[in-house]
Specification:
By secondary structure, this protein is α/β, with parallel strands linked by helices. It has helices spanning 22-33, 49-58, 71-77, 83-88, 107-117, 135-146, 159-169, 181-186, 229-236, 244-260, 268-278; strands at 8-14, 37-43, 61-66, 93-97, 100-104, 127-131, 151-155, 173-176, 190-193, 217-220, 240-242. The protein has two domains: 8-105 and 246-278, Rossmann fold (3-Layer(aba) Sandwich), CATH 3.40.50; 109-243, NAD(P)-binding Rossmann-like Domain (Rossmann fold). It contains eleven helices and eleven strands. The strands form two sheets. A six-stranded parallel sheet has the order 8-7-6-9-10-11, sandwiched between helices. The chain has a five-stranded mixed sheet with strand order 2-1-3-4-5, sandwiched between helices. A hairpin with a 2-residue loop joins strand 4 (93-97) and strand 5 (100-104). The two termini are 18 Å apart. Bound molecules: NADP nicotinamide-adenine-dinucleotide phosphate.
C-alpha cells in the first residue's frame, strides 16, 4: 500500500540495523491494518545518536524503537520514563509528545505477555531461576517480581553482575553459582535463559535438566534459532516451553499503538511471517 503526505512515521534506530526484524514486524501490521503509515530502519552512528533522538519531533516522527547499542543512552535522553525503564535503566521505545521525547521499556511487558500466551504467567510465590545478569535479565527480573514471584535465583558467569542485581532488587532476589545450579533447579518453577548462550554463532548453553522440578516451565529469550537446544531438551523432557520470539512480537505492540493509534494483534499469521524471515524464506 502506498503512503500519502499525511502518513504517520516511526522507525527503529540501531548500529548496525540490518539484522533487525522490527521493520518486518511493524510493516506487517501497517499493511494488515491498511494504515497510512511507515516504519523504517535507521542506521544511526554512535556519534549521531543524541542528535537523531532530538531530531525526531522536528522531523515529524511519532517515535522510534531503539536497539543495540542504544537502549541505555535512550533512557538518559528521555524527558520522562515509565517504571519498567526506570527499573532497567533502558528504553527500547521512544514516543514523541509535542516537543518532548519520552521513553518506555516494553521488553518487560513483552516478556510477561509471552509467558501469558504460553500459559505460564501465573508466578505468585513461585521460584524462578534466571541465567544471565545483563540488560535483558534485569528487565525480566523486574517483570517477574511485579508478577509476585516469591524468589528469583540469578546465576551468571560474572558473579559481580548478579550481585549488583541482588543489591538493586532486594530480598526476593538472590545470586547463586553455576556449580550449584542443580540445587536451584530442583526448586525451580520457571527457568529462564537470559544469556546469549545458545544463539546462532554463540557457544551452546550446556545444562543438565535431570534435576529440574518436573512441573517447571522453561523459557529462552534467544530466538535465533527459534527453538534453542535448551528448549528442545526441555520439551523432550515434558516441560512447558516459551520461545523468545513471543517476547519480540509482544514488545512491539505498545509502541505501535502509541505511534499509530491502533492496538495490533500478535496473530499466527504474523508469527509465521517472522518465522519465515528468520528462516530466510522471505
Ligand atoms: P547483555 O547485556 O550483553 O548480557 C549478556 C548475558 O549473557 C550476560 O549475563 C553474560 O554474562 C551472558 N553471557 C554471554 N556470553 C556468555 C558465555 N560465553 N558464558 C556464560 N555467559 C555468557 O545482553 P542482553 O541484552 O541481556 O541480551 C541477552 C540475550 O537476550 C541476547 O541473546 C539477545 O539477543 C536476547 N534478547 C532477546 C529479546 C527478545 O525479544 N526475545 C530481547 C532482548 C534480548 P557475563 O555478565 O558474565 O558477561
Amino acid at each position: 500500500m502506498s503512503i500519502t503526505g499525511h502518513a504517520k512515521v516511526a522507525g527503529v534506530m540501531g548500529w548496525p540495523i540490518a539484522h533487525s526484524l522490527s521493520p518486518a514486524l511493524h510493516g506487517f501490521w501497517i499493511h494488515e491494518l491498511g494504515l497510512d503509515a511507515a516504519y523504517i530502519p535507521m542506521a544511526v552512528r554512535p556519534t549521531d545518536f543524541d542528535e537523531a533522538v532530538r531530531a525526531l519531533p522536528r522531523l515529524g516522527f511519532r517515535g522510534a524503537n531503539v536497539t543495540i547499542p542504544y537502549k541505555e543512552r535512550a533512557f538518559q535522553l528521555s524527558a520522562e520514563v515509565d517504571d519498567a525503564a526506570r527499573a532497567t535503566g533502558a528504553v527500547n521505545t521512544l514516543v514523541v509528545d509535542g516537543d518532548r521525547v519520552t521513553g518506555r521499556n516494553t521488553d518487560v511487558s513483552g516478556y510477561l505477555a509471552s509467558l501469558d500466551e504460553a500459559g505460564t504467567g501465573q508466578l505468585d510465590g513461585r521460584v524462578a531461576v534466571v541465567l544471565g545478569a545483563g540488560g535483558a535479565a534485569r528487565g525480566i527480573i523486574f517483570g517477574l517480581l511485579s508478577r509476585g514471584a516469591g524468589e528469583i535465583i540469578v546465576v551468571n558467569r560474572t558473579a559481580g553482575k548478579a550481585d549488583a542485581l541482588v543489591a538493586f532488587f532486594g530480598a526476593r532476589v538472590i545470586a547463586d553459582s553455576w556449580d550449584r545450579l542443580d540445587r536451584a533447579l530442583s526448586r525451580c518453577d520457571l527457568l529462564v535463559n537470559a544469556t546469549s548462550l545458545g544463539m546462532t554463532g554463540q557457544d551452546e548453553l550446556q545444562l543438565d535438566l535431570s534435576k529440574l522440578k518436573a512441573s517447571a516451565s522453561v523459557s529462552d529469550i534467544v530466538y535465533r534459532p527459534l527453538e534453542t537446544t535448551l528448549l528442545a531438551q526441555a520439551r523432550r523432557r515434558g516441560h512447558k516451553t516459551v520461545e523468545g520470539l513471543g517476547m519480540l512480537l509482544h514488545q512491539a505492540r505498545p509502541g505501535f499503538s502509541a505511534w499509530f493509534g491502533v492496538d495490533p494483534v500478535v496473530s499466527p499469521r504474523l508469527r509465521q511471517h517472522l518465522v519465515s524471515m528468520l528462516q530466510g524464506k522471505s
